[in-house]
Write a structure and sequence with these properties.
Elements: H1 3-27, H2 29-39, H3 43-52, H4 62-78, H5 82-98, H6 105-127
Helix pairs in contact: 2-3, 2-4, 3-4, 4-5, 4-6, 5-6
Length: about 130
């Protein structure tokens, strides 16, 4: 065997964990892209990315679904779609109940803050005579 081929094969084993990480991260790329846009304050773009990737949600893990619901709901809340925000934040909360470690501590905090802000906005809308 040629030395460069042996070296390449040997290094392939070293890259295996990295490759597995990259491939597994690819499954949640759409959530990562949506959350990045959310944190950049680019809510319309985040909403678009997340909406377009909704069909992938069915095959996702509870963790992916919880993250997706969180960022979709938080984004819609920022855009003023209270009903949509409520639906997705509740979806995230339910997935979290099925898999308690699904969200990071920072994501849990965002979920709690978003649910509180949603409640305040819904109360404000009700007091103003809205539906």
């Amino acid at each position: 065997m040629r030395p460069w081929l042996a070296a390449l094969r040997g290094s392939g084993r070293q890259w295996l964990p990295f490759a597995a990480l990259v491939l597994s991260a690819g499954c949640t790329h759409y959530v990562g892209r949506g959350s990045d846009l959310y944190y950049q304050g680019r809510y319309i773009e985040a909403a678009h990315v997340l909406e377009k990737s909704e069909p992938r949600l069915e095959g996702g893990s509870f963790e992916e679904q919880a993250e997706y619901g969180l960022y979709r709901g938080a984004t819609l809340l920022r855009l003023g779609d209270l009903d949509g925000a409520g639906r997705w934040l509740e979806f995230s909360r339910l997935r979290l109940g099925e898999s308690p470690g699904a969200l990071t501590p920072a994501e849990l905090e965002l979920l709690q803050e978003s649910l509180i802000a949603l409640r305040v906005d819904l109360d404000r809308r009700a007091a103003a005579g809205g539906f």
